Amino acid sequence: MTDKAPYGFALGWEEWAALPALGLPALKIKVDTGAKTSALHAFDIEPFGKADTPKVRFNIHPVPGREDITISCSADVVDRREVTSSNGETELRYVIRTEIEIGDRYWPIEITLTNRTNMAYRMLLGRQAIQDDMIVQPTESFCQPERDDTVYFTSAIRHATPNRPLRIAVLSREPDNYTTRRLIDTGEARGHVVEVIDTTRCYMAINAMAPEIYYDGERLPRYDAVIPRIGASVTSYGTAVIRQFETIGTFCLNGSEGITKSRDKLQAHQVLARHRIGMPTTAFAASPKDTDNLIALAGQAPLIVKLLESTQGRGVVLAETKKAAQSVISAFRGLKANFLVQHFVKEAAGVDIRCVVIDGKVVAAIKRSASGGDFRSNLHLGGTASPVRITKFERETALRSAKAFGLRMAGVDLLRADDGPKVLEVNSSPGFEGAETATGKDLAGALFDVIEKRVRPAPARKSRTKSA
Residue span of the signal peptide, if any (predicted)? Predict the structure, then answer.
């Protein structure tokens, strides 16, 4: 500490300060005892959260004249007040409480948020924030140690974001199902605001200058992240909404391209084949004249005939004989439905492995067993789940599959065949209930770890230099 007065903590009319909880390690401020309240430069100010625990998000250019440096901040709202500025204008401002650091002193203060773009100082410290033992010396500058702005206001500041609350959207038409509730509860337990958005009620303004997304007549706010939980029946529209979020720069846990590829079963198998990932032999044809050749390509009966848009085991038929396969194929063609034919992995005996992959790691693996003699092991159809230990090859296959589709979160379904694991499906919106219940793993927590790491990156490591 370098106080210039022996009788108290000295402040000059300008000082270097830090607001660590807002991710601002260095800020040149003006100390003004003529102003009652403190003020911080803020733009894109946006309230969010619940009515009884309101929060506010805003951006700040911490260095005057450097609009290329933008810091995003979030804080709890403690009040909203009318403040009269020095030019006599009255403005209704949000008030936040945070900790300020000047020299070696830390203390909590209240700050109002306002746009100070044209001001020389990004923050004004008013007399309410000055403690009793502090002495303001109006003729002195920087009574406390200065901070090197060339160090703080470089790329390093971009990694100084604190653990601020995030505003996260879950795209789902089922707000009360297990997975959605887990996402809400886990996110809120971490201090975030999680909002469920019905995908089909979104609509978009598509233009080059200001692409926007609207919901129930109002423009959607800025979200830090979007978690897609799009049902198979609205894949096309849902991925269009995700593309719009991607266009405006929102972080989407799973991208539109990966979801689209995984939902189209024909394209999904082509992606797996391109990456040389094992799967049951699969055949596809459009002409009814090719039925026998189609069956021959997939192998001998029994065979699986599967609709391309099937989900949760529905639209999947086991044909025990060649004649049964011909009948099912004929029926599907009569409905003008797109389908594929697959080799039936008999040795799997109605059991498959669901590997939940999050951010390049298999965080849970369960064995799903069919019930009542059914060949389908889907939990929605009465199958049972139990934890399972997977092999290194199975783990690598699951990771390669998720990576092939560019999915940060995926449920990879495998069959244990005699010649190695075969991928049945890569699900871009896997449910958490079966895997969490069977393994006790916190999948929702692992998912939020990914979001926080992407949206709130950890501070960059300083490189070590050798001493001379």
Answer: none
